[in-house]
Amino acid sequence: MGAEVIVEGLTKSFGNQTIWRDVTLTLPPGEVSALLGPSGTGKSVFLKSMIGLLKPDRGKCIINGIDIVSCSESELYEVRKLFGVLFQDGALFGSMTLYDNVAFPLREHTKMSETEIRRNVLEKLEMTGLAGAEKKLPGEISGGMRKRAGLARALVLEPEIILVDEPDSGLDPVRTTYISQLFLDVNAQIDATFLIVTHNINLARTVPDNIGMLFRKELVMFGPREVLLTSDEPVVKQFLNGRMDGPIGMSEEKDSATLAAERAMFEAGHHAGGVEEITGVPKQMQPTPGLPPRKGDKRRTDRVMRMLHELPPKAQEAIIESLTEEQKQFYGVRSPAVAAANAAPAAAGKQASQPRPQPPGPGGDQPGVQRGQLPPEQVARIPENRWSPYPPGREPRPPQGQGGLR
Amino acid sequence: MTQRSTVSFPGRGALESTGKLFALGADVVRLTFKRPFQVREFIQQGWFIAGVSILPAMLVSIPFGAVVSLQLGQVVNQLGAASFTGAVSVLAIIQQASPIVCALIVAGAAGAAICADIGARTIREEIDAMEVLGVSAVHRLVVPRVLACTLVALLLNGVVSVVGVLGGYFFNIILQGGTPGAYLASFSALAQLPDLWISEIKAALFGFLAGVVACYRGLNPPPGPKGVGDAVNQSVVITFLLLFFVNFILTAVYLTVVPPKTG
């Protein structure tokens, strides 16, 4: 399973110029997270700070209990073996063939025999659709192939954390989707933690489990995808729609005068860009059929359901919407529309598969349908898992009454 | 905790760069003894450096020897010590000219190539990629190159000394009408074995310097593709400056420590 990355109060500046300050976030293990932000907000710098290529001014970045920012050089090299990083252009070694590029980490770090290396490398090349190209030099192949080769090299040591810098740069929309599919497939197979830095909206809307956004030298938000995708923050809305109308300007953020002037211009009929209003939470891409289900996805649902009551109402709605009927039963969430239409038959049919059948309580005479206040012990709990932040028996009381979620 | 001081004063950048350069030099020395040693890379680089520097070094050393010989021959003749021409020219060539010529060629031909190579790798993020894969770029790339520079400069020094002395001999005998016997006989009149040692020490040190400076500039180029060009340019200039400075120090120390031969 992937490792958890805890970033606390990370601040980076070059000279007097602060790039971002006090970035705090946790990449949940095995989940796919994305970091958005306008160009020049230091997304790539953030990525490089996470692996110790750049030294942040202060803050912590903890992986498996080791703080990247303050650890010794030898510890740093050890921790880096947990990482697979896909750079923008693949960053392949120009003097080596694809095969040697992918074999490089194995030859450096393992005692594998050449036959084992060969099997491993060919498997990874196959996985990234590069079978047959292993004799080529990086200069002889297209940008998309270089990216995939970079991914193959990042995967060969079976990393626990995979960082991806702008997977879409230089790729057409179709190839971008294919490479996104590849990320999800890899995630399903090795359960690695992903962080994708991008400003591709399609990718951001359909691939990650969690989304964060950097703007004005700060992390505007970081949380489950539904939170950002349903957010009413002007900057988020502007970014998702790719319009000029909003706080993001050409170079830096706009001041209020510019904003007002532009506002007037757009109201007078000037096209603010963007095609159509992008709202709502599209369905997330899934691993290719035939692969095992993503374990991170299951953990994420547990995690999100636990923090559901802390999320904004719109996000709550979107999350509940995205649950399958079985999940709704499992977490004890009732979709009002569905419940009203076929409450009794659905509930009766599903009861057998319900993991925690509830005894008929005082509030509900139909099984699975509750009304009014339930005693706390009858409110459905999400199952125990090892990321529970609370010691057993001390979970906070979930919000009472499912109607509150609407 | 890792709060860096932001005090700025004139020359801070230069001091910082100098510090980093020394740190890289120290790292190279430290990582030289770290296993596994990159034999393959070392041999490849050594072969490459030797290939690009032998011919230019020889071509430079012939006229160099000749110039020293001609100039000295003139002066020494006026002083009436014509029989010492050989002694003086061999001393000048072995102790001063040869290590400097070696270092100039190694820095100019090989150092520039190394700096451009590493600089290009840096801006293409290959170095970052290597570091991220848990492989130290200093250990993997810099150490073999610096050691190759050092070894080649050391060996080249022998070639340049011989060719330089032969050049001096040729010009003294043919053009100035010197006596071959006197020229050869006076070889050991002033020169002594420590002169050869210091010559080799100098050459090795200069080679090391050229390698470290080239790699340092390559690893820290100014931004952009043009930055690599600038880095190459700077690496050669910095090496030359350092070279003459270090040469001055070494010579001063040597002359104090080793008494000149009298008789």
Give the overall form of chain B: elongated
Low-confidence stretches of chain B: none
- Proportion in β-strands of chain A: 15-25%
What is the number of beta strands of chain B? 0
- Would you report the number of β strands of chain A? 10
End-to-end CA span of chain B = 65 Å
Number of structural units classed as domains of chain A: 3
How many domain modules of chain B? 1
Spans where pLDDT lies below 50 across 5 or more residues of chain A = 337-371, 385-392, 398-406
List keywords for this structure.
heterodimer, A: 406 residues, alpha/beta, Rossmann fold, 3 domains, 6-stranded mixed β-sheet, 4-stranded antiparallel β-sheet, 14 helices, disordered C terminus, B: 263 residues, mainly alpha, 9 helices, 83% helix, 0% strand, elongated
Architecture blueprint of SSEs:
The complex is a heterodimer of chains A (406) and B (263).
Chain A: E1 5-14, E2 17-27, E3 32-36, H1 43-50, E4 58-63, E5 66-67, H2 73-80, E6 83-86, H3 98-109, H4 114-127, H5 143-155, E7 161-165, H6 173-190, E8 193-197, H7 201-206, E9 210-215, E10 218-224, H8 225-229, H9 234-241, H10 256-267, H11 295-306, H12 313-322, H13 325-331, H14 336-350
Parallel strand pairs in A: 3-8, 3-9, 6-7, 7-8
Antiparallel strand pairs in A: 1-2, 1-4, 4-5, 9-10
Chain B: H1 12-32, H2 39-79, H3 85-123, H4 126-132, H5 137-175, H6 180-185, H7 187-190, H8 193-219, H9 225-257
Helix pairs in contact in B: 1-5, 1-8, 2-3, 2-5, 3-5, 3-8, 3-9, 5-8, 8-9
What would you note in describing this structure?
The complex is a heterodimer of chains A (406) and B (263). With 406 residues, chain A is an alpha/beta fold. Chain A contains 14 helices and 10 strands. Chain A is globular. Chain B has one domain. Chain B is built from 9 helices and no strands. In chain B, helix 1 crosses helix 5 (137-175), helix 3 (85-123) runs parallel beside helix 8 and helix 8 (193-219) packs antiparallel against helix 9. At the A-B interface, helix 2 and helix 3 of A face helix 4 of B.
